[in-house]
Amino acid sequence: MAPLQPGNPLDLAAISCALLVVYFVGIAFYNVFLHPLRSFPGPLLWRISPIPRSIKLTQGKLPFYVLDLHNKYGPVVRIGPNELAFSDPQAWKDIYGHRHNGEPELPKYDGLYRIIDNVPRGIINTPRDEHSMLRRQLAHGFSERSMQAQEPIIGSYVDLLIQRLLEQCNAGLTTLNMREWLNWTTFDVIGDLGFGSSFDCLEKSDYHPWVRILTNSVRQSAFLVALANAGFQPLVRIALRLGKLAINDNQALVRQKVSQRIELGVERPDLIEGLIKKNKEGVLSFKQIAVNAGTLIVAGSETTATLLSGAVFLLTTNPDKLEKLTKEVRSKFNSEDEITLTSVGSLSYMLACLNESLRCYPPVPTGLPRQVPKGGVFISGKFVPEGTAVAVWQWAINHDTHFWTEPYTFAPERFIGDAKFKTDQLEAMQPFSVGPRNCIGRNLAYAEMRLILAKIIYNFDMKIDDGSRGWIDTQEAFTLWHKPALNIYMKPVAR
Ligand code: HEM
Description:
The chain is an alpha+beta fold and 495 residues long. The protein has helices spanning 9-34, 44-48, 51-58, 62-73, 89-96, 110-113, 128-139, 144-170, 178-195, 201-204, 209-229, 233-241, 246-264, 273-280, 286-316, 319-332, 348-360, 394-398, 442-459, and strands spanning 76-80, 83-86, 175-177, 370-371, 377-379, 382-384, 389-392, 460-464, 476-477, 481-482, 487-492. Helix 3 (51-58) runs antiparallel to helix 11, helix 8 packs antiparallel against helix 9 and helix 8 (144-170) runs parallel beside helix 19 (442-459).
């Protein structure tokens, strides 16, 4: 056989291929036999390469598959060469909680939180020091006192929702796509609280273009994250530069809305008042305010709307639970005016229904990864080396039979001490995360969800349309859910 000639194009191609094969075999060998995570179990291909994980992510199936992996490999699974998934209540504290030795909490993993580098960081992905400052500024807008002041704002949109639903019914349209109506309500509320002006979705019975962009970007963002995680970062940059992607349009619209809010020049009991004050003091730039206002809108609208849609679906497909909740709501209140942000706090079965909906259908179904700092840490009693991405996967832990009796049954009773569910480990479920970077909007979310659901149930009898019976089963799950239409037969209550 003639020796290979690097000058010959065919031979050069053969040499390049051979080198590539050696390179990839070398990486595979290292990842399986020499990598610091080599002793953690997981599927072979997933331990070798990030690509299988990225493929499952773009298919919208990763959160469900992670549960299959836990069932097969146990509470700690290696789901990428450099990534571990945990299904254990203790892992919530170890990964996301305050650390007892005074060390800073585990930082967020940039592989998810920083796929594009041309946007300033906001509260979600900023490093610890700036985060503490932002959180302090925002905390005021989320206090009990501020929430009382926000009640008329929130209440006005919930009343508008009921009015618009009644109008639809009176016009003969009794089967309504509740996904849209709930989305429109939470976006209008948060638009007002975050930007100082509503998106007018309820008024127009349509999506504001910005809201449509956001709801449509769920798949797009997952695809970009998957590309970045699989090592194709340059492709992500090219995709973003080529423009026409939701993320780009999104930023321009946020800046416009925030400018309008600042130009109002008045103090409002909304969520960005604290940030605007810091802008006036020269501590925060306009760009930083815009990024954080945008974050508030995304974090506070889609999540709440998703949970409410999930609750409506789960209740209408479990009519006995809906009946029980209906009794609670209608016996508690004698008139519409009695249903307020404060009074809905006393509905205990309502809270159980919302919690069970959060378990069955967590608005953030994936894992939110943190990066193990220098020196490594112990998580669930296991030593994890530095640099590893670690997370608890919400949908997976919420359906793990180690922590839940009949995890696929919608049973609000498990949250109110029913003996049948006495072995359930309620602390396994943390839909708002835990620790210093948990959800700042948790109380607002609960209050808003209770108010909206209570007013709907007070005013309407609901029945699911047969075409929507498989609504959750067919959904793709990315960092958020890709939700199809949710058609519900709405019948106004005669009073
Ligand atoms: C059912 C509704 C909601 C769910 C399930 C939810 C869930 C979460 C989760 C899991 C996190 C942690 C994110 C991470 O670790 O990266 C988070 C953070 C956050 N959420 Fe929520 N959220 C909800 C509603 C809201 C609302 C109504 C708002 C505000 C208007 C809000 C604002 C935020 C903000 C600003 C953060 C970042 C906090 C920080 O980093 O300090 N969320 N949320």
